[in-house]
Design goal:
mainly alpha; 0% strand
């Protein structure tokens, strides 16, 4: 029966270790992400994580937990905005009104006829 409980204990301790490592890496990422925290304060937190890891991690989550979530949300929002801007720049990103105005300029210049303008207008409107 002791082999069973040894296995249960091993699984439990592995779970705790993995959970702690996830929290530790999240704290380290948050330390480097925070622009308002000075370099000396970051170094103190980092040294604390090395010498008293469990206590420092617990104190960090208690003291700066709300800020961690706000910085994470801001980072996700910034990444999403950058991705959207990149997609718009690659896809052309012109609005329907811009496409119609461009087609109208081509029509006025005589490059396209009225039928082609109508097709471009329908395509722009969707």
């Amino acid at each position: 029966m002791s082999n069973f409980w040894d296995t249960v204990w091993l699984i439990l301790m592995t779970f705790v270790l993995v959970a702690y490592l996830l929290v530790l890496f999240q704290i380290i990422v948050d330390l480097f992400r925070d622009k308002n925290l000075g370099g000396f304060s970051k170094a103190i937190w980092f040294i604390g994580l090395i010498f008293l890891p469990f206590l420092t991690a617990l104190l960090y989550i208690i003291a700066r937990g709300r800020g961690m979530s706000e910085r994470q949300a801001a980072a996700v929002h910034e990444a999403r905005s950058e991705t959207d801007a990149y997609i718009r720049s690659i896809a052309g990103g012109k609005s329907a009104a811009g496409q119609i105005a461009e087609a109208k300029a081509l029509l006025d210049a005589g490059t396209i006829n009225a039928e082609e303008f109508a097709k471009l207008k329908v395509k722009a409107l969707g």
